[in-house]
Every structure is written in structure tokens, then in C-alpha cells.
Write a structure and sequence with these properties.
The protein is mainly β and about 80 residues long. About 0% of the residues lie in helices and about 55% in strands.
């Protein structure tokens, strides 16, 4: 699995709509997110989570400054904005 902690600044751009073969889970630690999965919006606050099925089209918008934990399974070999 891949486990990442994101600190998202207020006003940060959305995570563009995309899909990948890994299942993905987002858990909001602080702040809030709107996550669109196959066009359906889900708004999450602190302590709430969503699991996105493999290959489901999704995008994410932070609702102000937000901290979230994201888990992908199996491990994602290429993460946007990383050098690995």
C-alpha cells in the first residue's frame, strides 16, 4: 500500500479528475474536502473518510486548509508531484 499525509493550503488547486487501478481511501484529519466519485459529490469533515473503487473517476477539492491521510492499495508506483 501507499500511505501519504497531505497538508493542503487554503486556495490550493483541485486534484484533477483522474482514475487509476488502485483502490484509494481519503480520511480527513482537519478541515474538509469535497470528493467527486463518478460525478457524485461527497463532502467530508474531520474524522470522516471515503473509499474510492479501483478505476473510478474522481477529483478532490479542499474546503480551506485541510490535512488528510490518503491510502492506495496496492501501492501506487507513480504519485503526481513526486520523484519516485
Amino acid at each position: 500500500m501507499t500511505l501519504v499525509e497531505y497538508w493542503i493550503a487554503e486556495g490550493a488547486p483541485d486534484v484533477h479528475e483522474h482514475h487509476h487501478p488502485e483502490e484509494e481511501g481519503w480520511t480527513v484529519v482537519e478541515g474538509g474536502l469535497t470528493v467527486w466519485v463518478e460525478g457524485v459529490a461527497h463532502t467530508l469533515g474531520g474524522g470522516e473518510a471515503i473509499v474510492i473503487a479501483p478505476n473510478a473517476r474522481h477529483r478532490v477539492r479542499a474546503l480551506g486548509a485541510t490535512r488528510a491521510i490518503v491510502v492506495d492499495s496496492p501501492a501506487r508506483r507513480r504519485l503526481p508531484g513526486t520523484s519516485h
